[in-house]
Design a protein that fits this description.
By secondary structure, the protein is an all-alpha fold. It is 65% helix and 0% strand. It has 17 helices and no strands. Helix 2 runs antiparallel to helix 5 and helix 10 packs across helix 12.
Length: 364
């Protein structure tokens, strides 16, 4: 009996870790479970658009759509439609008991989205962990638990990051109001995890999930979709035997959103131009410049009398980079290297600010 319980505990330890962390995040942001307004920058505009969408939802059309502008916001173009549609649908369920169903709906989605981040990170990181452990099948239970703990730590670090104006951390969707970007985080991670699995095994179910998550990302957050597409391009260059399958899979993903994408492109010439200010910081530099800058800033305080502790994640990031470069068992042709090279090239070639201000479609 004891052996059975111990085996069950070992087999499900990673699930327990992820559920415990997610439960804590839900509790931490519990004050968002309200239909009252919470101070935010852009969130009221998301709520206003979703209110209009909820009113029109049962009619199957958007009668308030204007390809020129909608109070300065071309509706569902600066942000894609799926986040607002999800909130509007949920609001229809909440309106029987909530004073402001749309506000409560968006608040609930924000909190649940934060709580599910460790699960999405785990799904994306699992193929990489298998490559590290030279495992073509399932990871051992202790490795799964270790991975769950690692991604939970990174999820906490990411959610508590202070670069909210650059779309980083929980404050970006909650305080700045980058609500749609929350969907972008999850669909990007799910797409990356499915893509890595497909590149490894080429299974049809992985191809279906890759196409579906790519479509959902396109329908949720266009800026994140651009970076996911760059990862697909790098995978196309990296894995020769999957090139045709990658093209077919991702064309299918784009085709799934054709009912929305085709009209948007057709009316693109009538859209109001945006005055997006290119940020000084950038999402892409989260694992490179920011950790190095953080360590340098901490070391500098040691010589002026204001001793500042090192951020352990900044140290871990550098250790991981050096390990990736120096460890003999890590294949220089594997998926870890593909992601590493992709991220470095993305930082060198373009930035979030460049994409947001240089593509006439208007991305955010």
């Amino acid at each position: 009996m004891k052996h059975t319980l111990r085996s069950l505990a070992s087999a499900h330890a990673h699930q327990f870790v992820l559920c415990a962390v997610s439960g804590f995040i839900l509790w931490w942001f519990r004050f968002y479970f309200t239909s009252e307004a919470v101070a935010s920058v852009d969130l009221p505009s998301q709520i206003a658009i979703t209110e209009q969408l909820k009113m029109q939802l049962l009619d199957g059309r958007l009668s308030f759509y204007d390809p020129g502008s909608f109070s300065g916001w071309p509706v569902l173009q600066f942000y894609a439609f799926l986040p607002s549609l999800t909130a509007a649908g949920l609001a229809l369920l909440f309106e029987t008991f909530a004073a402001d169903a749309v506000t409560l709906s968006i608040h609930v989605i924000l909190v649940v989205g934060m709580a599910l981040l460790p699960f999405s990170l785990y799904y994306a990181a699992l193929p990489l962990a298998r490559e590290l452990c030279n495992s073509d099948g399932e990871l051992g239970n202790r490795y799964k638990a270790t991975l769950a703990l690692a991604v939970s730590i990174y999820a906490f670090w990411f959610l508590n990051h202070d670069e909210q104006y650059h779309g980083i951390g929980a404050a970006a969707p909650m305080n700045i109001g980058l609500y749609a970007q929350l969907f972008g985080w999850h669909f990007f991670l799910i797409h990356a995890g499915a893509l890595l699995r497909f590149l490894k095994a080429g299974l049809p179910r992985d191809a279906v999930l890759t196409a579906l998550s790519y479509a959902l990302l396109l329908a949720s957050h266009l800026l994140t979709f651009v970076f996911a597409s760059f990862l697909v391009f790098m995978a196309f260059l990296w894995v020769r035997e999957r090139r045709l399958a990658l093209i077919v899979t991702h064309i299918a993903g784009i085709a799934l959103t054709g009912f929305w994408l085709a009209p948007m492109l057709a009316f693109m010439g009538e859209y109001t131009a945006y005055g997006v200010i290119r940020p000084k910081g950038d999402f892409l530099e989260l694992f490179f410049r920011y950790p190095i800058y953080g360590l340098a800033r901490s070391f500098a305080t040691w010589f002026n009398g204001d001793f500042k502790l090192l951020n352990p994640i900044n140290v871990i990031n550098l250790i991981l980079v050096f390990t990736l470069l120096a460890h003999r068992q890590i294949k220089k042709t594997g998926q870890l290297w593909m992601l590493f090279v992709s991220l470095l090239l993305a930082i060198i070639l373009f930035s979030s600010g460049f994409v947001a201000t240089s593509i006439p479609l208007g991305l955010h």
